Amino acid sequence: MSWLFRPVPLARVALFRRAVYAFVIVDVLFMHTSGHHHGWADPVWYRPLEMGRLLNLPAASVALVEVLRWGTVLGAALALTGRLPRLSGAVVAAGWIWYQYVAFSYGKVDHDRGDFVIALLVLPLIGSAALGDRRRSELAGFVLRVVQLVAIATYFLSAFAKVRFGGWDWVNSATFVRAVVRRHNWLSEHLLHIPWSLHAFQWVLFTLEITAPVIFLVAEHWRRRMVYGWYLFHAATLAVVGIGFWPHLVMMLAFLPLEEYRLPRQARSPVSPSRPSTPAVT
User: Fold this and answer.
1) CA–CA gap between residue 273 and residue 196 (Å, rounded)
2) Does residue 189 carry a pLDDT above 90?
3) Which residues, 6+ apart, have CB-to-CB distance to 265 below 8 Å?
4) What gap in Å lies between CA 217 and CA 227, rounded to an integer?
5) In Å, how far are 44, 60, 164, 281 from 140, measured between CA atoms?
6) Four-point Cα dihedral 147, 218, 235, 143, nearest 10
7) Which parts of the chain span the membrane according to its record (predicted)?
8) What is the pLDDT at residue 264?
9) How far is 215 from 198, CA to CA, in rounded Å?
10) d(CA 13, CA 216)
11) Sign for the pseudo-dihedral over CA of 146, 104, 161, 30
């Protein structure tokens, strides 16, 4: 329990929350916009996912996707101001998740958004959190720990799925060659002439994913280096095959002491210096 509820500064979760809600606006308006297009799709193509079957959600309509789209954006904009954090966070969670449901009920489901869903659900648990608030909160630590767990589960379960559905041929065949042929660019074309490198990288990726939970067992300085390493890996993936796991990259920020990157060490805390700081469980 002490590990799960380890107190962290409220400033950390405030910065993380702003990164999440800023991404929501960019994602809905500019990146993952298929949910908006599906409002004009013929309902005959609608195939409800488990969520839709349980909640009896209807097929998308133009009115529905417009409400979800702009309601989510306005909710995220309000959340960015720090006002009504629980209400605005709940609006964003409901709107964004439903909007993604519309996108994925007409085609494939992107696994890189699973941990982002969990983050949106747990962030409204935390009330007000200022950018300069150095008070430590057990609830804030719990929220970030949950995000960390699902982010690492994304890696581990991805490796498990590769073997479960593709077998060991996933790492022993030409999986990356096929990906490069489909989404090649001037950089990845050179790798086609070195096929052993792509085969080796399949094993490297699988090993990194299956051992991802080790991040919880190492010291803090190694944990940061592992996160930086994952960012470099995703940068390489984007450069070679043009695939970016953007919402997942935002989730990996939960491992970093964000307040240290923004505030000087001698930044004043809102807690009076004459009183000891206590965990602000909100």
Assistant:
1) 60
2) no
3) none
4) 14
5) 44, 36, 35, 8
6) 10
7) 20-39, 59-80, 87-104, 116-132, 139-161, 200-219, 231-256
8) 53
9) 26
10) 19
11) negative
Looking at every residue in the chain, the average pLDDT score rounds to 86
Q: Where are the alpha helices (DSSP H) in the chain?
A: 10-26, 34-37, 50-55, 62-80, 85-104, 114-122, 138-166, 169-172, 175-182, 186-191, 195-210, 220-241, 246-251, 258-262
Query: For residue 170, which amino acid is it?
Result: W
Strands 136-137 and 8-9: antiparallel
Of all residues in the chain, the percent with pLDDT exceeding 70 is 93
- For 17, the 3-state DSSP assignment is helix
Task: Report pLDDT for 272.
Answer: 38
Q: Which residue has 């935002």 as its token pair? A: 250
Residue type (1 letter), 160: F
Check residue 63 and give left, alpha or beta (phi > 0: left; psi -120 to 50: alpha). alpha
Residue 82 gets the label, from left (phi > 0), alpha (psi -120 to 50) or beta, of left
3-state SS assignment for residue 272? coil
Whole-model pTM: value is 0.84
Q: What is the 3-state secondary structure (H, E, C) of 124-172?
A: HHCCCCCCCCCCEEHHHHHHHHHHHHHHHHHHHHHHHHHHHHHCCHHHH
Separation CA 215–CA 223 (nearest Å)? 6
pLDDT of residue 98: 94
Pick 267 or 226 by higher pLDDT.
226
Measured CA to CA, the distance from residue 16 to residue 260 in angstroms comes to 13
Please tell me what DSSP assigns to residue 4.
T
Residue keyed to tokens 């450069």: 239
Q: How far is 211 from 155, CA to CA, in rounded Å? A: 9
3-state secondary structure of 189: helix
Q: What is the pLDDT of residue 55?
A: 92
